[in-house]
Amino acid sequence: MTSRPAEIETALQQLPPTLLNALLPLALEKTWHPVRSLSVAPDLPDVWWDQVQTHLPLVVQENGTIPVPSELREALTQRLSITFPRRYRELIQQHSAEALRDDNISLAASLLNDIGDQEGLNAVLEKWISEHHHIGNHERIELELKSIPSAWLGARAQAAYWLSQIVSGREMAIEARQQVQQAYDRGDRNPRLMQAFSFALHSEGQYQLALQVARQALATDIAGIDQLRILHLKAISLDCLSQDVEHLEAAQELLDQATAHVDLRYMGLAHVTLACAYENLSDWATAEPHYQQAITLYNRTSQWRFLATLLNNYAQALGDRGRVTEALQHLQDAERLSHISPRHQAWLAMSKATIHHRYGMHVDALASTRQAVLLLRQLQLPADEVMALSSVAERLVFNQQIEAAEQVHREARALLGTDPDGEAQLAFTAGVITFAKQEWLTAEKQFREALSGSLFNWNEARAHIYLVALALKAGKTPDTEVLRTKLDAFGQDTPLLTDASLLTETLTWLRQQPEWRERVEQVFGHQMIGTVPLRLELLGPLEIYHQERLLRFPLRRSAELLAFLALQGASTRQQLMAALWEEQADKKVVDLFKKTLRGLRETLRPLLPEGADPIVIEGGQHQLHPLLALTTSWLARDLFLAPAVHIRGPLEIRGPFLADAQGPWADDARREIHERLYQDLTERLENGDPTVQQAVQLLRTLV
């Protein structure tokens, strides 16, 4: 319907006055409904629907609603603002709130501006800017604020906008810093400006000034979310100033206040801050539960970007402590999060590559270091790319590709600016390359140059290992005291792992020294810290041990299910039922499978960290939790996938392969396994190994 304003006005005058006044609250509604509209205009009479159709040129749609022409809405709006100004103001505020819920900040703001609600306008703008800032949506903030008159922004909203510009790091950040400084110099001390000013100083490395501004703000009458924001800035400034005790106190105050306000987001942030504070004080046992609390809270509040950063940092901390499997699992969890930025993806890739490289996981490291380089290059992060390239070069050395390593090292050198960390790292990597080329004097010079710079703890320990190796090459008796001191300070001997392929002679010599033997054997002979060791005894009735304790399962098939998953790897439910039961997968078998799976979970769950599921289901496939470190004494790799089973320990034959297994899968494999094992042991016996004599005799009765 399209009508001239004069016709609309004539039609409205024909309505009974009581009906017209009752109809006015619907002025802002684009469609009317005979029942739903009563929630907005409760004074309408029961016959209102028929009356408006009689007096107004309106057409009812098939869905039972009436679309209201814009001319009619404008006429009703004008009457509403004059006749019921307070009601009009309330309705505009409600429509603004609805627009804000729909993320239409331009409409929400313009509605409030139209009614002169400056306080509400500033609050809405500040809230919208803060929420988009929190999720890192700075481009959207910049785009929308360009279309909104600057006069609409009050002091708090303007400060929130400046903070977003500073955090974004784009070209407008410099001007935003200047604007914040000028507002502060004019005497503005509103909490959002103080937050922006403290953060700006902190981002410039002026930690003492940032701390002073935060303390100024906290000395005022500040409360609620404003207080939490400033407390966090105070805590991170103290951290950067290495004031560890004060940092811990500020972090605890942040947690106390966040808890008092039941602000789950800041409670999570406070737990992260406390974890860092306790780490700085070398109290990992207290720090780790705070990491775990923060993970729980970030998951609960859907803080995916913050969770990705947290999981990355937690994984790095676990990696430093030798808990490699857990660290890689957390990185994998972070990679699966929705809406993480390319920057997060690059950081996660770099952390994964670092762990692979440090722990001598050669094949994985060759791939992951290159992937990290690719992602960092796309983001134009040259300082981080230099570090990743140095790992690539070292991996190529261990892969005996010296020329390729030198080329990558030159690429890294070309990217290097004035970063002292990068300079020390490249000197170290050059030492690794020249060591592999057997240029001993040059290598020693490069390692000492690296040690004189800003070298990370792990690589500092590695450099001292190389100096021990160079002393041996020179026919000298190495002094290992400095190496011992560095490893003790680091808290782990795992840096011995990284260069093992290049330093076999040195590690062998170290192992021959009485004071080093146990340390070397522990690094190279034990399971990774944080894993749950399970030993499978497969030759005879199935027995599964955790450490030295025989595990008891409520159902025998639960142990058999574990053995199948260990040997065959990820499997669907149908594959598992077909392997463990000869019958068709009817309701009875499905119920038995569920009981078997439940029994396996009940037995293994107490061995794993709280909340971890022993059986992980991904893409419809069941697999054992990656923290379960499985070993057995003998295995035919070509018969079983056995992706996570390591061969270790003395061979003990107590009877046929899985003698008490009930599923057809064991029957199908048993004869070939016996023949393969008999062939293997016979060859060992012929080669002079007398320890297998009894086992060979027993096997003759089985094949």
Automatic annotation (TrEMBL):
Give the residue range of the signal peptide. none
Gene3D superfamilies named among the record's database cross-references: Tetratricopeptide repeat domain, Winged helix-like DNA-binding domain superfamily/Winged helix DNA-binding domain
Question: According to the lineage, what is the superkingdom?
Answer: Bacteria
Matching InterPro entries: TPR-like_helical_dom_sf (IPR011990), TPR_rpt (IPR019734), WH-like_DNA-bd_sf (IPR036388)
Q: A Pfam family name for this chain?
A: TPR_12
Name of this chain's protein: Tetratricopeptide repeat protein
Species: Deinococcus arboris
